[in-house]
Amino acid sequence: MATDPRRQAPRPGFVLNVDRQTPPILFHHGDNFRLEKLPADRSRVIYPAEPLPGLPDPEGSIRDALLNPIDDDPLPSLLKPGMKLTIAFDDLSLPLPSMRKPDIRQRIIEQVLDMAAAAGVDDVHLIAALALHRRMTEDELRHALGDRVYDAFAPQGALYNHDAEDPDGMVELGLTRHDEQVTMNKRAAESDLVVYVNLNIVSMDGGWKSTATGLSGYSGIRHHHNVATMRESKSFMDRHSSELHHSNWRQGEVIKNHGPRIFQIETTINNNTFGYDGPLSVLQKREWEWTARDRATFMGMKKGLDVMPSGARRQIFNSWKAPYELTSVQAGNVESVHEVTLEHCFKQHLVPVDGQTDILTFGLPYICPYNVNSVMNPILVMCLGLGYFFNMYRGKPLVREGGVLIMSHPTPWEFHPVHHPSYIDFFEQLLAETTDPIELERKYEKQFAEDEWYIHLYRTSYAYHGVHPFYMWYWGAHALQWLGRVIIVGGHPRSVRRLGFQPASTMQDALEMASDVVGSSPSITHLHNPPILMADVT
Amino acid sequence: MIRENLSGKRIAVTGSTGFLGTALVERFLRTVPDCDLVLIVRPGRRGAQNRVNRDILKNDAFDRLRNEYATDPVSAGGLDDETFDEMCERRIFAIEGDVGQDGLGLDDNGLTLMATVDIAVHSAATVSFDSALDDAVQVNLLGPGRVAAVLRAAAAARTEPTSGGLGPGEPAYLVAVSTCYVAGSRRGNAPEQMVQDSPFFVEVDWRAEVDNAFQARKDTEQASRTPERLRELEAEATQILGAAGTPLIAERVENLRQKWVGDRMTQSGRARASSLGFPDAYAFTKALGERSLCETRAGVPIAIVRPSIIESALAEPVPGWIRGFRMAEPVIAAYARGLLKEFPGVPEGVVDVIPVDLVVATILATAARGPHVDPDTGDHQPDIIQIASGAANPFKYGQLVDLVRAYFTEHPVYDEKNQPISVPEWSFPGRGRVNRQLSRAQFALNASERILDALPLRGKQAEVGAGLEQRKELLERASGYVELYGAYTECEAIYQLERMYSLWNSLSEADQRDFNMDPCSIDWKVYAHDIQLPSTVKQARLKMSPSRGPSVDRNERLRKNVLSPDRHLAVFDLENTLIASNVVASYSWLATRRLDTPDRVRFTLKTIREAPTLWSLDRADRSDFLRYFYRRFEDAPIEQLQADSAEMLSDLLMTKSFPAAIRRVREHRALGHRTLLITGALDLVVEPLRPLFDDIVAAEMSTSNGTYDGQLTAVPPTGEARYSTLADYATEHGLDLRESVAYADSSSDLPMLEAVGFPVAVNAETKLAAIARRRGWLIEHWSTSAGAPNRVIPIGPRTLRGPLRKQRAG
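The joint structure predicted for all components is written out below.
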């Protein structure tokens, strides 16, 4: 396959103007798909760039990055016998979907550990920097780090999940110039060196957000995970226009001055989410280029999925491991490293788009950062659509202010009882009362955040923190304010209404329903995501 | 004539708490302003006077007179500025007495007061058509004679003349209320004559009937205590309650035994009555009661008033007034609800009903006229007056059915889904056919119930069972009506009214206006549509408009009660109340966690093989089951189990949890209620749930050398032990169980559920669902989260840290 021209000369992202000849367009639809014919002459489809070529020698590139860091000393020179070393790494929420073994984290950490061993460092802890996410299970840790690392560290308790609610496990590092608290995992804070291993799948990830958020707790995170900040992050995918990131960077300054020394390692991966061949490869091809075989594969797959029970569909998709390839790795100073990372990210994701649209459409896939090996519940549907996908822009939103968002997802009234217990109560109780993020934040955030039972489940079970569903809702706050209407095609009517959106059974109906907001002949733009793309709107 | 003759008299009334009696008291008070009343009422807990105030004067029959007194006491017949209550106090004397006892059980004071009585109206009777034979004998057969005896004794004890002028030794005049049906089941005319004068009367010795009735009670009591019978009853109680524990089952067995005796005695009554040509024990005992009264009256002047079926008032005190749910109402209500699709009877048959005010007027007129004196001998002759409608103004069964049908077609009753119920057209089948239909339906229901019962159903599916149960109950009631009243619809006797009419004709015009007793004055259509049916609808509380669904309302209301800040303790069961799992599942999870694959397969197969045994053991007695089952933990290392159980929180407990249940626990805590988990599960299993509750009571195993020994340290908190655990807990914390809420899923939790003021049946199994529905408890259907991993067999995810037990699978 190395000779496949697509791998050597990938085509950039592309905007297609829909005409009568354009075949129906693929919409992700949870753990299934839809093909929708978009109105000719006023619709356009934005396609992601094809996967950039992966680095030919990942191990070598990693080693090179560690030995030649940006604005920092080579890693081996920072490692001394008797020192306290903490390796923090991105949790389960990255990448999406999980990647095939060996995971990049494993590759990097193995090399860091080799260097530490060579330098005679024996006090090493590995911490999954999951902030208020759920703990990773043994299987998940083994997948991310490999059995060798796991078996060497987990049994003696040197490999574990960050616990933001451990009363003895967190320290205060101080206040930012905006009086934002900065808290950090105690072990990390007291280390002589923290090596943070990032998997930067989108431009939101990495930088100071890794340590300031990933190793922090509610008292630190609440300063930027709130409605006001998220409404000022336009978008949160664009680090330099994102209040979310500004706040994290301020907290980073406090870490720089009062916290441990950070050695940041960031990595980017290409768009090879579904593979060049295999059953899902059709998902990263452009519809008019589908071969007869692609079409047959797709139709067969769809027919199969249609008759499968939802549990079985979920299992099939959750077992998919993406054949991502490493496209860059850089290490050293947090800020300098992150700028390089952003360049690599944008190179893969950015697609120039000319002007806004009346109606933005996209299909939501089966996965988002918070339901790996779990269930995509209605709140996550909201967050993925109005949070992540809506914010996949630089410059200005793809859809005009007051425009309509039509997304496609079955939105079943389903929750994972272990992973999302506070989501269930948020959905059943709070959303029944209001969907206004400001009111939810004001009336209920603290109560959920400090709830003993949720804290107990976060610490001892595999539950997202009690406050997490609020963050999901805040993630969509910018979009909620911006949009005139949100319609979910094929969504379970009751859950869609509970979210405050409108259900439509077909795309036709949805367009009809949108017409009282945007008129009868609106412009339509379809974001053909995933694989990931980010619109550079001018 | 009536008012004048009764004025200044003192009148004793028995049965004044009944339908007819209440109407009598009201009529006397209202229309004869200067008579006194002596009411002989059965002693209640609160004394005679209190019963009169509560059970008689509170009745809406007195609203009219009460209002008249409120506006103008003098024109209402009272004194200046007198209130209704003051008037009652002045004119009513209550004494304790019981027609079921010799001498009416009167004390000396009672007898002294009876000595001042001029007229006695005996209206006390067991009118219930299904009363036990011996009860009916006591009241209906022996009652009239006892009243006559008391009047004789009172006359003998009299020293001064009564206000009506009776001297010492002169017995008061007794007007005894009987029934037209003493004529027996027959066709054709039934004149106003003594029962024994009828050519169809089968001569029996009433004294022998009395003795035999009492003997029958003794025999039946004895028969109910044979080992075979008691075994059957115990089986039946277990069938109803399931594994509810010995005390509750024992209580139920005794209830069932008493019911069995009662039913047998009812059957005996009906059988004896029918063997002598009477429709039921009521008519039979009343007939012999008349005979015994005539035989034993010894100088007491008597009149016997025989009404047919007494129904709601035509005009007095207000049209439609009725007390209690009488004969026709339940049948009509059942028909309106679409339950009773057929009722036996012939369309040409006469339904002999008579409005209560006509009966009351007849009694007053009979009392006012005084005893009938034989012109030749000067003796008091027993006088017999029938008051019925069949002879003068017959109301045909076919006409009744048409009127009822038309009424409920125009004013349909709504079902719980707010749909109007369309009433069926009756085809006037014979009684046999209806009975066959009903018993076929009953048989089918019983069979499906038995099947459902044998299945491990819960929640919504169990509700189907509970629905069946309800359906069965209604059917039972319907067939009860057919059995009870069917004989009456087939009784085609025409009750003659000669004496009634001669009495009527002797009345002045004013009396005829104020004391209407003429059946010809009834317009049946008006009576049915404007008086009787609206009153039935009200009495039966039929749902006549499509309101919001009552079941929804009810649950919301109950939920609000449960979540009121006034409650202070909420106690929860674990299995199937908070989580969809059980001790077998948690054991399997723990036991397999450290097994390799072949051992897991062996373990699973073994557990599946054992399942039926375990299940039936569990159904029989939960504590025994737990004790038996927990032996499996023998030699299990404590530390390892505790570590594994922490992991089980996620993999089993939370996965199988009902989020709504957990939310409910937390709602109770937020309201400041104490929350308590009482479970037969092991303490180590529920330990991770501790932050959810204020306290947890669970089964504990004893330990030795770092391992469990498989023995419980105390009786596991299930069944009645669960109740006593709860009771002890409440006492210890100064909590009132009446202000407490309990959540449970199974009939074995009945002792606990019954102990609290606010029981909640969660995902109830069939038996509990039926019980909860009947008692109006809150029923919650909580389910596991849609999206929860669906695992059929609870197998612990493998861990590489060594087996749970070294030796073998489990």
